[in-house]
Amino acid sequence: MSDNIVLIKKENSDCNKKLLVIGVFHGDEFQGEYFINSYLKNSSPVTKNAVYYIPRLNFSKERKNPNGVDLNRNFPTKNWIKTANNDYFGGEKPNSEIETKFLVNLINQNNFSAIITIHSPYKVINYDGPAEKLAQKISEFLNYPTTNDIGYPTPGSFGTYCGIERNIPTITIEIDENEDIELLNRKFYKLFKWLENEY
Questions:
Q1: Among the residues of 4-160, which ranges form H helices?
Q2: Fold of the domain spanning 2-180
Q3: Nearest residue to 188 via CA among 126, 144, 151, 157
């Protein structure tokens, strides 16, 4: 499966910060892949910051991955627990999934200044770790509220793994799935361009 995960690196020898942007953590939340691919087709190859893009992490068409695991509950965090086998099933053990291992290895091998994932449908910018200022800036592009509490427990989540336990500014953008996708696409184009050149 990790052979199918596409990692696109926009970087040069003079790059300042290094960022990671991830789409389709949950297989039924397709929008991130669309925004990333659309941006990469039309953007300049020249960037101030290095930005690594993963258009699609999860190749299932459902929330969980092909093994029936919610990837956003499978990270090796201090609060990981084995849960009921439902839509939020975090696996038989933490870091059991190829997709999770791919991200854990990528993060261990790189010093990312910030990480952004694109989800739906809550229309909020959730942040973990020292990411409040970045969340507020992203809010200016999307006109979404920001919060550091999604409102329910998320054992084994990516935000806990990266933001809380590794102190990497980590943003979860929950898009409004009822908003016109082309309007959102234009907003994300401006956001990605800002991340590459001004963050």
A1: 31-42, 98-109, 132-142, 158-159
A2: Aminopeptidase (3.40.630)
A3: 144
At 3 the pLDDT is 63
C-alpha distance from residue 198 to each of 51, 64, 85 (Å):
12, 35, 43
Query: According to the model, what pLDDT value does residue 42 have?
Result: 95
Task: Assess whether the previous peptide bond of 94 is cis (omega < 30° from 0).
Answer: no
DSSP secondary structure, 117-170, as one string = EEE-SS-EEEEESS-HHHHHHHHHHH---EES--SS--TT-HHIIIIITT---E
Torsion from C-alpha of 69, 88, 131, 177, nearest 10 degrees: 100
Q: How many residues does the chain have?
A: 199
Whether pTM exceeds 0.85: yes
Q: State whether the Cα torsion 46-118-183-59 is positive or negative.
A: positive
Token match 């290094």: residue? 18
Cβ count within 10 A of residue 68? 15
- Residue numbers in the chain where pLDDT is lower than 50: none
Structure tokens at 140: 């200016």
Six-digit token string for 144: 């979404």
